[in-house]
UniProtKB/TrEMBL annotation:
Coiled coil: none annotated. Keywords: Lyase. The lineage of its organism: Bacteria, Bacillati, Actinomycetota, Actinomycetes, Pseudonocardiales. GO terms for molecular function: lyase activity. It comes from the Bacteria. InterPro entries: Anthracycline_SecMetBiosynth (IPR052164), Glyas_Bleomycin-R_OHBP_Dase (IPR029068), Glyas_Fos-R_dOase_dom (IPR004360), VOC_core (IPR037523). Residues 6-118 form the VOC domain. This is Putative enzyme related to lactoylglutathione lyase.
Amino acid sequence: MARVTGIGGVFLRARDPERSAEWYRKHLGVPMSDGGAITFHRTEAETTTLAPFADDTDYFGEPGRRAMINLRVDDLAGLPARLRGHGVEVLPQTEDSEFGRFGWCVDPEGNRIELWQPAAGM
């Protein structure tokens, strides 16, 4: 059965992403990259990313949404179909990249959730 296997990332809207990244570096000791993101590697195949995005990004959906969670899944073809069967709003688009396949659904509060099936070897 298609399911979530972990958290791929947490993405935050920020008025000043560079300042936010610096805050995480300075106050919490998070080794943010110069690009303003960090990927934690628990194992080679299990990573979690924390990244501030520009406040005006449309990647999270509605402008009032401050964060988006990325969930790692094992079957991006099967999970959206199952979610639709349960009445969950699933966005029609998917995206393929070097990192894998991405799709999106929306929780009952209107928060966009990114579903990520990592590329082989990730």
